[in-house]
Amino acid sequence: MQIYMPVPRGEGGGAGIVLLYADNYEQIRPAYALPERGAVLGRDPGADIHVPTRAASRQHARFERRGDAWVLTDLGGRNGTLRNGEFVTEAALAHLDEIRIGDAIFKFVESDAERYAHYRIDGAYLDEPAAPDVRPRFSTGRIVGGYQIQRLATGLREVARSELSVLIRGESGTGKEIFARQLHEWSGRSGPFLAVNCAAIPAALVEGELFGHRRGAFSGADRDRAGILRAAHQGTLFLDEIGDMPAEAQAKLLRVIQSKEITPLGATQPEQIDVRIVAATHRDLDKLQQTGSFRADLFARLNDFSITLPPLRERKEDIFSLCIALAGRHGGAEIRPSMAFMAGLLHYDFPYNVREVEALIKRWAAADRGASLELEDLGESMRDRMKTYAARSTASRPPPMKELRASAAPPEDEAAPDGEGVSALNGPLPPRTAPGEKALRQLLVQHQGNVAAVARVLGRDRVQVHRWMKRYNMNVDDFR
Questions:
Q1: Cys staple from 113: which of 33, 100, 392, 420, with CB 3.0 to 4.6 Å?
Q2: Contact indicator for 279, 241 with CB cutoff of 8 Å
Q3: d(CA 135, CA 125)
Q4: Do 34 and 128 contact (CB within 8 A), yes or no?
């Protein structure tokens, strides 16, 4: 088994900032590593990080290392400095914090900054600075994205012509089927690519759909019917939402993978097939195995090679190139997004991931208002999110150096007691306090997985709610 996922933080170099958007992005490096001595960012060509945008001051902001944390300090320019949509004077930075300097928006990364430097936000690959380990050596076709996505695509391409089963994990809407289709194209297999959603087929029909049946196998079976596995002979079968497959069908699928044979309902003799299995899920298969809902032996067979797709909120540097690609796919030959439009996109967490960006672009293309993308082209939830954009922070000063933890991440919140659940919260949380696991779970159930709504109840940013969910090992899709 081989598993590919985004490079663990700390293995790709130092902290830095990654460009998410600027109107003149061609004039700005895709990423900057922060030197240990710190760095000044500004419009001055002599600044450590030169950002040639008129809305930036000559010396706009400073990144400074204090202990093991990085602190962002505004240097008093006319337009101010924003972190996560709030004006700040000084602020300790956490991984993936968004920073706006004039009309350029970056994200802070705790490590691996230089690995992003090859990939411009429009999808162009830059030869300098060199990093041979991440340079694409092939076309990634329908897969769109920069460093994180290209690394996953490289791993997938390496096993494309093998017989290995592949498991693709990731939240809903992250592009699991796109990766599966691209794998099939790279595989060179002569048969078709077929996809089946295991969650959409009633349990009583799964077996017949997958394995087919013979005439007379059951009431109403008036003729032979080839199942999906037979139809995918010499090709690839994509089993989406494999975690929702009924137990009986799991056992039969395991036998198919092991024996390369299928026995249709009502048949007495097995039939040989040659099918590459690619499975996908947003569910925690490890937890499902522990509860007995998913067979461990089937998991072992499906997990010859595994990749985990990051949610869009963790790879916002890809949003602009996704807009370009999706606009071309849905009839928009050119896009010209305004700064307000891009600020709105980047300030949003995309609970439904790339699927949500595609829906937005399809609506824009259908409206046929030309190449321009303005604030009104954003979805309603995105516009609601922008109502608090550029607010003045009431707590923008970082804690003294002695209080900064040994990580650039913000200090761990003290968990509130769980005993009375949501009712114990009684409105916004006090500073440095997290909801208990039970209370957070109840809020997510109450709001059907709407993280923005939960954040409003707790008086916190959605990014912080996502951190709490990660701490408690919660998946937002389980509440929708």
A1: 33
A2: no
A3: 8
A4: no
196: which residues sit within 8 A by CB, 6+ positions away? 209, 210, 228, 237, 238, 239, 240
Q: List the alpha helices (DSSP H) in 330-413.
A: 339-346, 354-367, 380-386
Sign of the torsion angle spanned by Cα atoms 423, 424, 426, 432: negative
For the chain, the first-to-last Cα distance in angstroms comes to: 32
313-393 has which CATH code? 1.10.8.60
Task: Report residue 451 as tokens.
Answer: 């993280």
Residue 373 has phi, psi (to 5 degrees) of -120, 120
The DSSP bridge partners found for residue 64 are: 71
List the pLDDT tens digit at each of the 480 positions of the chain: 545 444 444 444 589 999 999 999 999 999 999 999 999 999 999 999 999 998 999 999 999 999 989 999 999 988 999 999 999 999 999 999 999 999 999 999 999 999 999 999 999 998 765 444 444 445 677 899 999 999 999 999 999 999 999 999 999 999 999 999 999 999 999 999 999 998 888 777 777 788 887 777 677 777 777 889 989 999 999 999 999 998 888 988 998 999 999 888 777 788 899 999 999 999 999 999 999 999 999 999 999 999 999 999 999 999 999 999 999 988 877 889 999 999 999 999 999 999 999 999 999 999 888 888 999 999 999 999 898 898 765 444 554 444 333 333 344 455 555 544 454 555 566 655 778 888 888 888 888 888 878 887 887 777 788 888 888 888 887 887
| CA-CA-CA-CA dihedral for 389, 393, 394, 398, to nearest 10 | 150
Architecture of domain 3-116: Sandwich (2.60)
Query: How many CA atoms, within 13 angstroms, populate the side-chain half-sphere of residue 315?
Result: 26
* pTM score: 0.79
Superfamily of domain covering 147-308: P-loop containing nucleotide triphosphate hydrolases (3.40.50.300)
